[in-house]
Specification:
- By secondary structure, the chain is of the alpha+beta class.
- The chain has 13 helices and 22 strands.
- The protein has three domains: 200 residues, Rossmann fold; 82 residues, Uridine Diphospho-n-acetylenolpyruvylglucosamine Reductase, domain 3, CATH 3.30.465.60; 102 residues, no CATH class.
- The longest helix has 27 residues.
- The protein starts with 11 loop residues before the first strand and ends with a strand.
Length: 424
């Protein structure tokens, strides 16, 4: 009945017990294992009034009869759901698992066993399918997730009921399990019986298919992790070659993008399909400087062949700075403009502007925009490049050179402090 590989001898196990048939079956089976150290845990959701109190009292009584240690938690799920703007089911799950993980730590238990069974697994898959989930959602409930284990995941409700009858194990019925206003209950009471009628043994066959789906999904996730390892940190930004994403098969690329977003957001970010699609498109675009705004104050942008995920706001253009004779450090940048003569009217340092051009050594004139593109300078950096100009036009541009058609170019030097030299 149990997936024994999940419960190696000597394990210290916290068993989640609601008092219902599934959890009482699990508790009884585990209590027969002399090679385990077992503690029961019950969480009172306080949703069903006297019935909730009845279930807690029942679990206390059974654990006392069976000589099992028990830890009990309580939480006002309805109030928590309202405060956190969650559904009752989400709020209950959050509070319940918070309690279980805390209780496992306090009791020194390395494993937390829950009583999810084969029908629970089928219901979960069908619910995800109804919501349009991809392959990841069709892998059902994981048999083990870190310290959480589900030993009854391949056991049917019929087998559980037979076990309870054979061993005389009592249990309580939760009245909300009969309430078909809950989507899961409608799937349980209406959809699965219909599928079993159409195709007898549906749940059993679906249960055997889920491990194969999980194996396929695990393989794709492993390929995505290999692709994700090409990402690197550039100060606070996360960068990866856009071509690596664009050239990967979509099932792998989309998973790698999910990993990138989670890493950039510094947590497990549940991305939407639209977010993933926008980044895939960004990696495939021919535009060298397109960008996409994302939640969590995150921006994804192309910097030529790089995909960059950043929390930084676009840099502000340089404030116009009049020049004086001598050295003029540009605030916040590794550049100094040295003026070799008294300043003349209109002489300033500023950001690029519309129509800015340079005359090159070959005599050709080229716009700053094209020169920046030739240099593969990201758009996000272009407004922070110092431009020395006066009323007659550009005199020099940091990193690019001097305007050979400007008569005063010999009066200006631009020094790059990173190189410790005059710009050539």
């Amino acid at each position: 009945m149990l997936q024994l590989s999940l419960l190696p001898p000597g394990s210290r196990v916290l068993c989640a017990v609601s008092g219902g048939a599934d959890s009482m079956c699990l508790l009884h089976v585990l209590s027969q294992r002399e090679d385990l150290s077992l503690t029961a845990a019950h969480f009172n959701h306080q949703l069903r009034g006297e019935e909730s109190e009845r279930d807690e009292a029942f679990v206390r009584d059974i654990c006392g009869q069976w000589g099992l240690p028990l830890t009990v938690g309580r939480g006002d799920v309805r109030a928590f759901a309202k405060r956190e703007k969650l559904s009752i089911e989400e709020a209950g799950r959050t509070l319940r698992y918070t309690f279980l993980f805390r209780a496992a730590e306090e009791e020194g238990c390395g494993l937390i066993a829950t009583a999810h069974n084969a029908e629970d697994n089928a219901e979960t898959l069908l619910l995800h399918l109804l919501r349009g989930s991809g392959l990841n959602g069709l892998t059902g409930i994981s048999p083990q997730l870190h310290q959480l284990i589900r030993p009854l995941l391949t056991t049917s409700r019929r087998e559980i009921e037979a076990y309870l009858a054979q061993h005389g194990v009592p249990h309580m019925e939760d009245s909300t399990n009969a309430d078909d206003t809950y989507t899961r209950n409608r799937v349980r009471h209406q959809l699965i019986p219909l599928l079993e009628e159409i195709n007898p043994g549906f749940v059993r066959r679906l249960s055997s298919a889920i491990p194969r789906l999980r194996a396929d999904n695990d393989y794709l996730n492993d390929l995505a992790r290999q692709l994700f390892r090409q990402a690197r940190r550039r100060e606070e930004d996360l960068v990866i070659p856009a071509s690596a994403i664009a050239q990967a098969p979509v099932p792998v690329a989309s998973r790698a993008v999910r990993l990138l977003l989670s890493e950039a957001a510094e947590g497990d970010w549940d991305c939407s399909a639209a977010h993933i699609e926008s980044l895939l498109t960004l990696c495939q675009t021919a535009s060298p400087s397109a960008q996409v705004s994302l939640p969590h104050q995150l921006t994804a942008r192309r910097e030529y062949d790089l995909l960059v995920l950043t929390h930084d706001l676009p840099p502000q253009p340089l404030a116009v700075m009049p020049l004086r004779e001598g050295d003029n450090p540009v605030p916040g940048l590794p550049w100094t403009v040295s003026l070799q003569a008294p300043p003349w009217p209109g002489l300033v340092v500023r950001s690029r502007g519309p129509g800015d051009t340079l005359t090159l050594p070959n005599g050709h004139t080229k716009s700053l925009k094209k020169l920046f593109i030739d240099q593969k300078l990201p758009r996000s950096e272009r407004d922070r490049i110092p431009v020395v100009a006066d009323d007659q036009g550009i005199i020099a541009v940091a990193g690019l050179g001097y305007n050979l058609s400007h008569p005063c170019r010999g009066q200006v030097r631009i020094i790059d402090h990173r190189k410790g030299e005059d710009m050539q």
